[in-house]
Amino acid sequence: MTDALKIGIAGLGTVGSALFRAITTRHNMLADICGREIVITAVSARSRNRDRGFSLDGVNWYDDPVAMAREADIDVFVELMGGEGDPALAAATAALAAGRHVVTANKAMLARHGVELAKLAESNGVLLNFEAAVAGGIPVIKAMRESLTGNSVQRIYGILNGTCNYILTRMQRDNLGFAECLAEAQRLGYAEADPAFDIEGNDTAHKLSILTSLAFGTQIAADEVYVEGITNISIDDIHAADELGYRIKLLGVALKTGTGIEQRVHPTMVPKGSMIAQVEGVTNAVTIEADILGELMLSGPGAGGDATASAVLGDVADIAKSRPGHQHAPALGRPAAKLEPYQRAQIQSHEGGYFISLKVDDRAGVFASIATKMADNGISLESIVQRARPGGAADGPQTVILVTHATTESKVRSAVGAIKGEGYLSGEPQVIRIERTREG
Ligand SMILES: NC(=O)C1=CN([C@@H]2O[C@H](COP(=O)(O)OP(=O)(O)OC[C@H]3O[C@@H](n4cnc5c(N)ncnc54)[C@H](O)[C@@H]3O)[C@@H](O)[C@H]2O)C=CC1
Ligand SMILES: N[C@@H](CC=O)C(=O)O
Ligand code: NA
């Protein structure tokens, strides 16, 4: 048998601990599959003495993950600390520069520094694997990097954040409040160390920017994503969507338009009968529309210790199975030097249907005024309904809900701005984009 593959793990939290357990409890099975043992020889985390339910005896401990990446006797540095900057970045950089393979689940770091890390991996002849960084356990990176080679992608979209999908599902299905659902997602190990990354949409944006690069062969452009999170989505919105035949999902969408590539993350209405609407809880899904393949949808566990560790383990096992001289797919699907500059298509030119919910004064002419502002901006309406006041109350603002036919973001913004100027609105209008799916 070839020499053992020695790995060092930095970060022994939700994912690192699950990985540690998976590797140590499946040692013989992995050795049979890979033709060599996989041995954890070094670890680094914040607390050496924390009870994690397994022993670190015989494993070299490093207080400093960068020192471990640079100095430890390891072949693979597994980065599971998180954070877009140091020490994760310094450690990954040090490991690649020292000729060690890197496996990471850190989408925040890759979204900012993925291209430079990919270049460093290429120039040092080592691998940068990151399956766990996008859609957790779903093998979407491998699919895009390897199986879709030669396809031209038109659109890629999906549910990329387990925490948000868990929250939206529990709110819709069980009528629970936002804060309670978020606390559950945190307890289950789905949320980021700072859950604002999840609920404000940044985590989805990080993942989307990585997928965009793989799909369209462009530089990763995380700052060029239009982002709205789910913090403004209320149970009322979820119920209104339900009545109209939709579910609300936080989607990341990237597509080619006439002016460039549109990258957007926002709460989205999808038809209730569509496949993506059926994706519930922590489950993620990615749909890829490609010219040779057609449409592919991958779905599976998007977060959680074991599901994420499964993807990390797959990446480590790929390295264990590889032999000297074997040529690997580049980290971002093509040599980093061949990635094209990213050309942004602005959100204002986005085309699609819209759901608009307005709280308005209950007086004559308001309904007609709303319809007129829409028509003035060239927006055609699929429906406009006035909803009964909650609990049958006799006074207070009325809710008017509009669903538009396909139009543009700039027209919707202009119409909503004009309605706001009329003085009959209470609170901010709720505007939710509707995404076209295979089913409608
Ligand atoms: N939890 C999940 O479901 C998923 C997490 N990820 C990513 O995996 C990575 C790890 O996530 P979790 O395990 O959930 O986080 P966590 O917060 O549970 O664990 C992080 C670990 O890193 C250690 N750490 C942090 N800073 C350190 C430092 N300066 N020096 C040494 N150790 C340090 C902590 O002590 C802890 O052991 C993150 O990049 C996260 O975005 C990716 C997919 C899913
Ligand atoms: N916080 C993330 C973890 C996986 O990437 C999520 O909820 O999806
Ligand atoms: Na994945």
TrEMBL record:
This is Homoserine dehydrogenase. The keyword Nucleus does not apply. Residues 355-439 form the ACT domain. GO terms for molecular function: homoserine dehydrogenase activity; NADP binding. NADP(+) binds at residues 10-17. GO terms for biological process: methionine biosynthetic process; threonine biosynthetic process. Pathway: Amino-acid biosynthesis; L-threonine biosynthesis; L-threonine from L-aspartate: step 3/5; Amino-acid biosynthesis; L-methionine biosynthesis via de novo pathway; L-homoserine from L-aspartate: step 3/3. NADPH binds at residue 107. The active site is at 207 (proton donor). It comes from the Bacteria. The keyword Hydrolase does not apply. CDD domains: ACT_HSDH-Hom. Its EC number is 1.1.1.3. Signal peptide: none annotated.
